[in-house]
Write a structure and sequence with these properties.
11 helices, flat, 293 residues, 80% helix, mainly alpha
Length: 293
Amino acid sequence: MRGLLRALWWLLTSPLRLLAWMARGIAEGWKTLSSEDPEDTPIGETVQKAVENPGDLLVHLAALRGHLLRSAVALILVAGFVFVYSSQLLDWLAAPIGGISELQAIEVTEPIGVIMRVTLITAFAVTLPYISLELLLFAAPGLSRRARITGLLAIPLVAIFFLGGMAFTYYYILPEALPFLLGFMGIPTLVRPSSYIAFATGLMFWIGVAFEFPLVAYVLAAMGILPARLLRAQWRIAVVLLSVLAAAITPTIDPINMLLVWVPLVLLYFMSVGTASLAEGQRRARLKKKGLV
């Protein structure tokens, strides 16, 4: 009986212990954000040290495992909460096609798969700031204090850009693409929930990722990895590649719907050139102030 009560107590308190474990991990990582700047070691020397002392690499891998585990736990917890509202989310996603009544399931397990997909995509969007924080805490020991502060300020922007891309897809791309798809050649279309939700959420996800371009360009340029002049010099090639990407993302073959995806991607690319130039100028000013340029 005592063992049963102990197991029941362990089960009831496991969520609190899980949250305490996550809080301890964040607190430990938070200390590194206020630590001193690391030594500026060349990449070649860093790689050589990793080869000579593989144990140090295992320490970093263990730390990465902790950050990934906390991110996964946060994703699962949020998914459990989102699952309660999955039917409302499904109704919202089905609005561009005329509502949930326009979808007809064929397989027995199809509604369950649709609900799980909607739940996971929504949970990822909600958990994205926390996942970004965990990744920043992992990289913080190798970043300067200014880079850590920049990373913290960028975390809300990561969520805003991603949600902005998803909203753009939902309110502008889907209403234009669906009528063409459903009315092509006048062929009646029986829309399955799994097909429509996979199409809608996949498009929303990848456009949301594309909206991160300017932020990624700023961070890479601030670290000196991506020169802004390279983005400016290769803009013609980038436009062609973005055309291919837009054609791959766009579910239709007509040029109108492709342009709805291609134009934002091109604008985001030139915004990336601007943000990279801004970060590069700030980095050059800091190096000049320290007498390193």
